[in-house]
Structure formats: structure tokens, C-alpha cells
Amino acid sequence: MPTATTRATARDKLLDGARKLMLAKGYPATTVDDICAEAGVSKGSFYHFFGSKEELGIAVLESFARQAARVLRGPYLEVSDPIERARGYLRHVDAVAEGLWRDGCLLGNFAVDLAETHPEIRDRVAGQFERLRSLAADLFRAVAQRARERRPQTAPSAEDLADHHIALIEGSILLARASGDWSHVARGLESFRRYVETLIA
Amino acid sequence: MPTATTRATARDKLLDGARKLMLAKGYPATTVDDICAEAGVSKGSFYHFFGSKEELGIAVLESFARQAARVLRGPYLEVSDPIERARGYLRHVDAVAEGLWRDGCLLGNFAVDLAETHPEIRDRVAGQFERLRSLAADLFRAVAQRARERRPQTAPSAEDLADHHIALIEGSILLARASGDWSHVARGLESFRRYVETLIA
DNA sequence: TTGACTAGACCGACTGGTTGGTATACATTC
DNA sequence: GAATGTATACCAACCAGTCGGTCTAGTCAA
């Protein structure tokens, strides 16, 4: 007796197939026929569930962002000492990075592919990055504060750290894609952790 | 009397137009007809100079990489003290960043768009990043050495620093594109300079 | 219990426009 | 008069999107 959660509906299969293909080849190079074939679903079904390719793109983006937000939560949130909480967060990101970004980051792909051509998607991507940024900035607040006490001249703000963090992740994913060597992502994350340790040491 | 350097030949106009469009919209979303219209040149001329769209893509990539290599050279190369040379390099990058990456980075765009679909272009992109990496690693060697003396536990290698540097630039460009706020690039560069100063302080 | 009815899930052939690329004729220059 | 360069009409393949239709599970009156 398949329940709503165990049975993969055609809609879910389309979403999964689209995510996989758009992660690998990018949005413009992924055709609707590709997605249907990957999902094993007909084109009629596609347009039964989604009004357009762009509408599916938005749905995939939202689903990716939801998953990222879920995975990024962790036990570190309960840690009371703010510096230790930041450390816990960075360890947590290390742990979930492979699962989250093994095939790339949809936010990054969409930012490159669609910024100029699909303003609505671009705005949504920007909004997701903004959310991540304020989340990270809050976590790094105490790190920035301590850095300011230690070395006022070269101390970054919490927002600087958050931007640095996100840009480094996205850039590492890009280099991983270019070189085919996905250890870039883990090394980028590690490098950022070293930076933070240097700041608070 | 137009000379070879002042007269823009059809080939050059195609190269320029393609660079502009591919920087803005990415490779797949840029059509051959678009490029011809942008360059004010007919399709016959296009296929007279380039055997295919991919061949033009490669030519644009090489021209972008050549320009980057030229612009990235600077007076810092003559500085004998290796730490000061690294500092000089970072100042130089700050200065030329706007000119180089105001509209994005072709290496980054191609990495995202073509890694999976055009293996030859991907290999060339990877090669260019590799070149940049070894260049930067050489410049950061002394910084890494001093960091090792100061804080052995959290010191990055010269290669770590080079990867960090490049990934941060590419990631900042990506965030700039997503948000529409191109000050991200300058701030990313500044953040890296602060990191380096922290390491050698 | 059954049979008429309905709504949503799903199908695949089709369309009109666009794509990268070609053929061929014309112009310019040495 | 060749070589080099430019123009335009054209093509087959491919694209997103459409449309008429089938299938199935559920509803409900009799």
C-alpha cells in the first residue's frame, strides 16, 4: 500500500530528474525532453504539472533551497557559547558538504546561467543567498567581535565573513567543476576554518 | 590609414561581440545569430573565420585568458622582498579588478556552462585555472612560510592560499551576478588581503 | 452492488519558431 | 584572376509548448 511519501509521483520524478540534469549541464542546456526522458515521464505529464520550463526551474530551485536549509541545521544551534557555536557550524558544514554539493550548487548554476535572462529566477537566487548570508553573519558575529579585539586593523565584520564564506564555497564548487576534482570543496571549507581559527587565536 | 591594430576586422568584431554576449548570458544562451548581429557582420563571415560555435568559444576563451595574463602582470614583479611582492600583487589585482571582471569572468561562466557538455573547452578552462594557481602559489610562497613560523597549526600552504584566492574571486563574481551588486568583487578581494595581512602579522 | 459520471493523472503526436551550420553568389584586394 | 572576405537564402535538427485523447480512482444515485 504505497503512501503519499513512499510513492514517487510523476511530479517528484520530474523534479528529481530536472535537479540532476540542471546540476550537471546547467539550465539552458537541459531540455524539457531530456527531463521527461530522465524521469521516465511523458511530455504531457510535464505540462500537466508545470506551466513552463521556467516554472519547473523555480520549483527545483525552491526544493534545493529547502533541502539546503534543512541539512544546514544541526546540533551546533544549541551550543550557548557563540564562538563554539560558530566552530560547531563549520564542522557541521564540513560534514554535510559532500551530500549537499557533490554535484554542484543549483544556486550557483542558476546565478551564472539565468541572471541576465530570467529576472524572476535571479531575484529568487539573490534572496536565497541573502538568507544564507544573514544566517552565517549571525553565527560569525562573535568571531568578528573577538577578531576586532585581537587585531582591530585587519578584522572583518560578521557580514564580511559571511560573504567570504559563501563566495569561497561557490568558487570552490566552480573550480571543482572545472578541474573535475571535487576535493576542492572540502579543501575550501577547511581553508575557511583555518582562517576563522587564525582570527580568534 | 588604418593599421592592423586600429582597424577592427570582422574577426575581431566577432570575438568582441561574442565575449560581451557570453559574459552576459553565458555560452548556451548566446546564439550565433546574436553574435553576428552584435558584431554587425553576416553569418557567412562568421563561418569564414570560425569552423563552429565551439571553435569561436575556444578563441574567445584564449583571448580572455591572454588579456587576463597581460593585465595581471605589473610592477610588483620587480619587488625583491617576497612578502612585499605578494602585497604588491594583491594591490595590483585590486586596481585592475574592475577592468577585468566588471562583466564577469569567462573562465567561470564556461566552467559552469560547459564542463559536462564540451570536454575540450573544460580542459582548457581547467588549464587556465591551473596556470593562475601556480602563478599565485609562487607569489604566496613566502606568505605561507611566514604563516608557518607564526602559527604552525593553522597555517595554509602556498597552494591552499592560491586556491583560496581564486575561488574567492570566482565566488564573489558569482554573488555579484546574482545580487546585481558588483562591489562584491572588490570586497572579496579586500577580505582576502586582510586574511593575508593577518597571516603575516 | 452496480453502473453512470467526473476529475485529475498521464500520454505522445504535432506545431511553429529557432538553432547551428551550409551553399552559393558577389565583392574586394593583391 | 586568384585568394580572401562578405552576403543571403536555405536546411535539417531541435526546441518549448499544444492538443486531443486515454486511463484510473473515486463519488453517488438507484
Compact description:
Two copies of one chain form a homodimer. Chain A has 201 residues and is an all-alpha fold.
Structure description:
- The structure is a homodimer of 201-residue chains.
- Chain A has helices at 10-25, 32-39, 43-49, 53-72, 82-101, 106-114, 119-150, 158-179, 183-200.
- The N and C termini of chain A lie far apart (57 Å).
- Chain A is mainly alpha-helical and 201 residues long.
- Chain A is elongated, with a radius of gyration of 19 Å.
- The longest helix of chain A is centred in the C-terminal third of the chain and has 32 residues, at 119-150.
- In chain A, α1 (10-25) crosses α2, α5 packs antiparallel against α9 and α7 (119-150) crosses α8 (158-179).
- Chains A and B meet through α6, α7, α8 and α9 of A and α6, α7, α8 and α9 of B.
- Chain A binds a DNA duplex (30 and 30 nucleotides) through residues 9-11, 31-33, 41-49, 52-53.
What is the subunit organization of this protein?
A: homodimer
Tally of alpha and pi helices of chain A: 9
Indicate the percent of residues in helices of chain A: over 70%
Low-confidence stretches of chain A: 1-7
Distance between the termini of chain A: 57 Å
Strand residues, percent of chain A = under 5%
Shape of chain A: elongated
Number of strands of chain A: 0
| SSE class of chain A | mainly alpha
User: Helix-strand pattern of chain A, N to C?
Assistant: HHHHHHHHH
CA radius of gyration of chain A: 19 Å
Please give the largest β-sheet of chain A.
Answer: none
Mean pLDDT over the residues of chain A: 92
Please name the two chains that share the biggest interface, counting residues whose Cβ lies under 8 Å from a Cβ on the partner chain. A-B, 51 and 51 residues
